[in-house]
Specification:
This protein is mostly helical. It folds into two domains: 185 residues, Growth Hormone, Chain: A; 193 residues, Up-down Bundle (Growth Hormone, Chain: A), CATH 1.20.1250. It contains 14 helices and no strands. Helix 4 packs antiparallel against helix 13. The protein is globular. The two termini are 42 Å apart.
Length: 402
Amino acid sequence: MTDMTHRVAGKREGWVLVLASSLTIVGSVMVAPVLPKMMAEFAPTMPDAPLWVAMALTGPALAIALFAPIAGWLADRYGRVRLLTFGALLYGLLGALPALLDQLMAIVGVRLLFGCAEAIIMTCCTALIADYWSGERRLRYVNRQVIAIAVVGALFFMLGGMLGEHHWRTPFYLYLLPLLLLPFIARILWEPSRARPAEGSSPAAVQGAVSPRPLLVGFFLVCFGMIVTMAMPVNAPGLLVGIGITSSTLIGLASGLGLLSSLVGALLWPLTRRTLGVAGCNALLMALMAVGLLGVVRAPTYNLMLTAMVIHGIGSGMLVPNSMAPVMEALTQRTRGRGMGFYTGFLYIGQFVSPLVISGIAAALSSGTNMAISVLAGLSMLYAFGWLLSALVLRPRHAMQP
């Protein structure tokens, strides 16, 4: 590998990484609209088809959660760009393969392997963003990454639905499109050099040591935050039916508005972080999500429920960039792959277990989904209060520092 210390990342590298990062949301949203048609085809021959069809949607998230730390270790050992190129190739081939398969179990198996490819892409992209930029420029690209995921997710959700009108297999061919990114990944991106530490560096810097505290705080924050985030899209359709909204158009509109509001949250994040600080922003976003969850549980009308979903979405849009930035800052160049791999893993663990947490709370309290969501909202509000106390303590300390 040639020495790349003289190279400076610019907009070209940024756009490639942002587009590659957005592939991770496509993995689930493009398949969701065709699940009923998959169910109709496989249910007559498989009694447990509903379980395995659902696994075709959620299985990649579980695979990402389990494989992302391994992907991070591979990125640190063998290089980010090489692994990202391999992951993008696997993504395209494994993503399209279910269109050619006739066995549901084979489709589920391929989707799990596809999740491993997603883990490689997300881990390598976030590690390279941390490698290429620092300070405000790094935060800018982290925010663009979140915005691109929201925009591309909404676009492919619609594309998947339109193509699925023809046959449930058709949307899977769209997974071949990311193969067009391969030449840009190979030509524009470059492996960051592992420069020697400067003279006078501390022993911790020389050894590549990191403080575990900000990492553990960030991992827990994104895991719990994703549990609270996913509680909305998973349960909102059922709650809408509960107040008499059965139109699929109105339910789809509500889901789309929730996704759009998360984009608003991501756009507001830079100003919010500069105004309130990281801890203050954490307090705000957790409080917004708590208020949104309480709102959808208690809203008697469709319009009030939409308002609650927007409030929740704005908070969830701030979660990933605000939790990711301190983790990136705490990692060294030698440990960023592993660190971001664990971050990605905790993010998808939260996403995967969110329905299980709601079910567990309902079972423990012998209550319904509404009460379980209310309890989760209460826990989120308590967590927000903890971050508020942290912000009130930390900001005066920073102000007194020279």
